[in-house]
Amino acid sequence: MLSWPRPSGGAGFGARPSDGTGARAGAGQDRSAAHGYLLPIDGSIIAEVPDTPPAEVASAIGTAEQAFADWSRRSPIERGRVLRRAGELMLEYEEQLATLEARNLGAPYAASLAMVRRAAGSFIYFSELADKVTGDVIPVDGEYLTYSVREPHGVVAAVVPWNAPIIFATKKLAPALAFGNACLLKPSPETPLSALQLESILLEAGLPEGLARVLPGGRATGEALTGDPRISLIVFTGHDGTGKAIAAAAAKNLVPNALELGGKSAQLVFADAPTNRVVDGVVSGVFSNTGQACIAGSRILVERGGSEQLFRGLAERTRRITTGDPLAPGTELGPQTTLAQKEKTDRMIRNAVEAGATVLAQGELPTAPELAAGYFVRPTLLTDVTPEMEIVREEVFGPVAAVTTFTTEEEAVALANDTEYGLAAGIWSTDAARVHRVAAALRAGTVWVNTYGVISDRVPFGGIGRSGYGREGGQAAVELYTRHKAVWTSLHRDEATADILL
Fold this sequence. Notes:
Blueprint: E1 2-3, E2 34-38, E3 45-50, H1 54-71, H2 76-92, H3 94-105, H4 109-129, E4 136-137, E5 144-152, E6 155-159, H5 165-178, E7 182-186, H6 193-204, E8 212-214, H7 219-226, E9 233-237, H8 240-252, E10 257-260, E11 266-269, H9 275-287, E12 299-303, H10 307-319, H11 339-354, E13 358-362, E14 380-383, H12 390-393, E15 400-406, H13 409-416, E16 424-428, H14 432-441, E17 446-449, E18 468-469, H15 474-481, E19 482-490
Parallel strand pairs: 1-3, 6-7, 6-9, 7-8, 9-10, 11-12, 11-16, 12-15, 14-15, 16-17
Antiparallel strand pairs: 2-3, 4-5, 5-19, 10-18, 13-14
Helix pairs in contact: 1-7, 2-4, 2-6, 3-4, 4-5, 9-10
């Protein structure tokens, strides 16, 4: 069984780094009791990790401020070299990281390995973007040379969810560090294990101690981090309720923040779309990561002209989904990550049926006796749903989709936009003019056409409405993790000036 803090020694894979003061994190400090982290396939404890108490959070912020003073003055090329090495080390350790992620999260090993590789790619991409942050020379009235530059904020507080922990951790750490900030990361209390390994990897790559810390814990840890006035930027991915609390904490200290929250995304399937391609794409868009994705396309809207054939295809594919041990070859769907999430998903399915929904199809639960206590949910397709039902309006975060039909393009758009969320949407059609009309009409931060769920660090990502605000990725990440400074230089030869230009 794994346990943190690790014994002192090198900062290689598996080591729990120090707090930047020379003491191992947790050594001689008043830590709260360790939490046991459960294996989702059977409920057994796989690791114990102590919460970070508020006093240690405060100390970590002070240490990060000191480390930031040096790191922000280093050249972007030097910062990029450290991050590239971190990405390379992740790829060297990819099998260990993927196994750890699969065990803690419950995602199939192949999916966990893909997550690790994508997370490593974040460090590599932002290592290359670090030296490409530029300013502008701005023409103004009068004899002045006026230009703007972009500078790091300072200490960034990053809070990430449990459903794709290694991806969300690097999605915050990589741009924050590339552009000269310090970053303190609070992983979800359910899945902190891969983030703790990332801290070790960053140190092995040459990152200064204390510049990036992982602070495991629950609400008290998060409140101590996001409520500290020394924090210069807060970035959060997770539930909208927590996002509102973080926004309030940020407002109290006038701290800029970005929130990427939940979703209730629709996939619009038009009759001209090829059924075979659509079935696999739609099912993947719903059930990937056991439906535990903010972008899950869990509202499937099907044009009536082709609905019967598509319903049959979706039902057949859902019944064939292989549920089982994430580390077993051939597993397509693992367990839910927590018992609480499994119980919520089961409850929402029951509520939908009691409200009048019909179960169109369900997959099977694993039959192995050793998995009987796991947090497994049968992948489920529901029909006969109505817009006011909970299953249509609220995020499930489980392997469940609600399927309904539409007659016209206008009706499809109206149904898709009938939500408080606005994170993503999908369109399945071969009509080029239609897909661009519909994409423009959909109220969502990202729209996929004839695919679903593709994400890149090069592309802005975020939501609107109840799905949050702010964007990460590509140039949007530069805008988020740096701030403008304007510099005015007088070119007058004879005397100083103090003009006020309006």
